[in-house]
């Protein structure tokens, strides 16, 4: 009897990591993973967990709802799903994005009003939603269209006198936030001019866009992974060359696993955006790069996601999936956003 118990335990211990590694390469397992993550994350956000995230991160409420909405839109569009349940979750995310509680952390006196983080991520959700077949069933169509128009007109008016990096916070300009705003625009001529201006503003010798406007020589792994994704989504004609420069400077390949250095010098310096940095490699940078490389069709994105999926100790039972014993939902959100790109 004891031998049988140990045998079964050994089998479970073998199957568990193997299933986690196989998940991104099998469509059935990958879709189950995404569905169960959506169920878990929509449940906790609907119960107010985004307010707890707001206490931990400067933009936690807006960002968590934006990432969940974008993940659902990508998942449904890739799988040609128009289920009413998913429409409702996206509508609920948008309702929370537009709430006074989400807005209160952003400065209404900035130009543009509320700053680029709010304008960029909110309109990124709106622009993607409007293009999705899901939108036909939305009960928030008028609010989405109206708010998107307001933001686009706001950005166009702000950029009319000169193309420059716009404020995220008072006297703080972050190129990644500007690029999120850029890819949300419907005005392609303005997109082209603004993208060219941002690309020309860096002083880094590789041509990689800088992390913050206060130091145009500084690049960081987490923001560079996001910036490269934005340029890919925008349709930047030299994206393959740009991605090569990014990978050459900051990405290390271990047997197909792509780890991203947070700092160019390989140091462990970290902040709230970088997440944990171990041996110079950043958690946020590495996980964001999965989304980036998947958007470029890089097969290593699946290998990296598989390893991160295993290391994050997922529990995927009873229709819900979560990582690290529910301790880091931002990790769950970024892993979901990356997963839905692995088509």
Description:
- There is one protein chain.
- This protein has helices at residues 2-22, 27-46, 49-56, 60-79, 84-97, 100-103, 115-131, 141-159, 175-183, 188-200, 221-234, 239-250, 283-295, 300-311, 329-339; strands spanning 251-254, 257-260, 277-278, 281-282, 315-317, 320-322.
- A two-stranded antiparallel ribbon has the order 1-2.
- It folds into two domains: 1-29 and 203-343, no CATH class; 48-201, no CATH class.
- The chain is mainly alpha-helical and 343 residues long.
- Helix 2 packs antiparallel against helix 4 (60-79) and helix 9 packs antiparallel against helix 10 (188-200).
- The longest helix is centred in the N-terminal third of the chain and has 21 residues, at 2-22.
- It is globular and about 60 Å long.
Strand order of the largest sheet: 1-2
Question: Treating each run of at least 4 consecutive H or I residues as one helix, how many helices?
Answer: 15
Order of SSEs, N→C? HHHHHHHHHHHHEEEEHHEEH
Shape: globular
Biggest pleated sheet:
2 strands, antiparallel
Q: How confident overall, as mean pLDDT?
A: 93
Q: What share of residues are in beta strands?
A: 5-15%
Number of strands: 6
What structural class do helix, strand and pairing data support? Answer: mainly alpha
Low-confidence stretches: none
Percentage of helical residues? 55-70%
Distance between the ends? 44 Å
Whole-number tally of structural domains: 2
Radius of gyration: 20 Å
């Amino acid at each position: 009897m004891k031998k049988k118990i140990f045998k079964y335990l050994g089998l479970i211990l073998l199957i568990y990591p193997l299933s986690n590694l196989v998940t991104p390469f099998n469509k059935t397992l990958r879709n189950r993973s995404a569905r169960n993550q959506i169920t878990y994350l929509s449940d906790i956000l609907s119960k107010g967990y985004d307010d707890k995230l707001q206490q931990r991160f400067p933009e936690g409420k807006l960002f968590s709802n934006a990432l969940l909405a974008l993940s659902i839109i990508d998942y449904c569009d890739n799988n040609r799903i128009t289920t009413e349940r998913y429409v409702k979750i996206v509508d609920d995310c948008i309702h929370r994005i537009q709430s006074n509680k989400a807005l209160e952390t952003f400065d209404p006196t900035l130009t543009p009003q509320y700053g680029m983080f709010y304008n960029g991520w909110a309109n990124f959700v709106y622009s993607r939603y409007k293009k999705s077949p899901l939108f036909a069933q939305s009960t928030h169509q008028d609010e989405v269209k109206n708010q998107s128009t307001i933001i686009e007109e706001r950005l166009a008016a702000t950029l009319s006198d000169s193309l420059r990096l716009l404020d995220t916070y008072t006297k703080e300009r972050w190129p990644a936030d500007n690029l999120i705003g850029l890819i949300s625009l419907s005005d392609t001529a303005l997109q082209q001019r603004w993208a060219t201006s941002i690309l020309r503003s860096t002083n880094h010798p590789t041509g990689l866009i800088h992390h913050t406007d206060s130091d145009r020589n500084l690049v960081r792994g987490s923001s560079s992974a996001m910036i490269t994704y934005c340029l890919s989504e925008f349709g930047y004609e030299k994206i393959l060359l740009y991605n090569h420069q990014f990978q050459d400077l900051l990405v290390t390949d271990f047997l197909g696993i792509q780890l991203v250095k947070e700092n160019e010098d390989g140091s462990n310096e970290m902040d709230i955006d970088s997440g944990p940095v171990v041996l110079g490699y950043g958690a946020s940078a590495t996980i964001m790069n999965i989304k980036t490389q998947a958007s470029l069709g890089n097969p290593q994105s699946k290998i990296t996601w598989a390893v991160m999926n295993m290391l994050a100790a997922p529990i995927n039972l009873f229709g819900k999936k979560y990582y690290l014993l529910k301790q880091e939902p931002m990790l769950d959100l970024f892993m979901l956003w990356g997963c839905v790109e692995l088509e």
